[in-house]
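From the pipeline queue, job 12 of 40. The input is one protein chain; the requested action is below.

Action: predict structure.
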Amino acid sequence: MPPAFDDLLARARALPRAGHRAILGVAGSPGAGKSTLAEHLVRALNGDGDGEPWVAHVPMDGFHLADVELDRLGRRDRKGAPDTFDAAGYAALLRRLREEPDETVYAPGFDRVLEQPVAGTVPVPPSARLVVTEGNYLLLDTGLWARVRPRLDEVWFCELDEPERVRRLVARHEEFGKSHQEAVAWVLGTDQRNADLVAATRSRADLIVPRSALPPRTRAA
């Protein structure tokens, strides 16, 4: 039987141990609902108490290479592919989050309007005993990405029916400025190649999370 959202919350709550900050990864293809799952987990878990937030959200998207660097490397036409991220920088941040729990650690964010990374916009305070991080390539075991999985306590894989995933992804690209034709071309080209690569990592996940596991009000969003 697939997990319910309450099951996910219980599993996430159990990850931190005494004196140990846990890091939960949420992987999945573009448009599969990684950010939605991460955001709802963080909100629900932080609602457990009245004190400082004990769960932090650190998206992988802040490690996109800037467009100026992608232009220099000749990779801008496939932005979002594994080699258009700073994988080593992301792995180093995960190491810091694990090894420096008593310090505030700053992670980069990603501006969806500018489509650019922004340094130092995501603080992870010492009160965070669980960090939820999400991105496409957490389970990739090639190149510098192979450094990521060993730094994560668990990785959950978001799964969504392919037609719905494509529809949502097209709508997202349109929301941030692409025409319908441009969005469809990008989703069925660059994004699909990345989605196929991510789908091949599914078997390495600790848990498969279907869309039905999210609260009903988010499934219709």
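Job complete. The beta strands are 22-27, 55-59, 105-111, 116-124, 130-134, 154-159, 207-210.
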